[in-house]
Amino acid sequence: MAVNRYDGSRAWYTISTYSGYEDKVAESVNDRLDKPEFKGKIFGAMVPKEKSIEIKNGKRTVVDRKIFQGYVLVEMCLSDETWYIIRNTPGVTGFVGTGTQPTPVSEKEIAKIKRRMGVEDPKYTINYQINEVVSITDGPFKGFEGTIAEIDSAKGKLKVLVSMFGRETPVELDALQVKKID
User: Fold this and answer.
1) Other residues' Cβ atoms within 10 Å of the Cβ of residue 135
2) Nearest by Cα to 62 from 139, 118, 121
């Protein structure tokens, strides 16, 4: 397929991949950067990821989560040759753009993505309010319902009043261990 002429300036482009192949595609591109056909043309690939908190077996763990499933960012000077090299990397399904023309990602957007990737401590987003009734989804009180008495946004913790043995008992839970009751 013939590609339109490009201006050859260095920019970031988004390529789509088969789901689950993002890391393999980025690694494949980055492993070939020393080859002569890449020198001064393709500068690197990255899979945008951010740190996220998950609860597994009652324990809080920090994991890297892909920001854009199925996409990899490649910094390159777009030409027919580089388009062909990237397009024919195993796992790549195409470039993101209008028609057959790949669209560069703005520097402002790249800076925003890099800032998001660079955040070391995951953010706690607590979308609960005091006196809200919630269902406990994990831990020893799984299946119980309770009322939120306190919220600690800095630690991502909630104090939930659970009715046990005829009285309300305060239980400290991670915000990820409860869900709103619809």
Assistant:
1) 15
2) 121
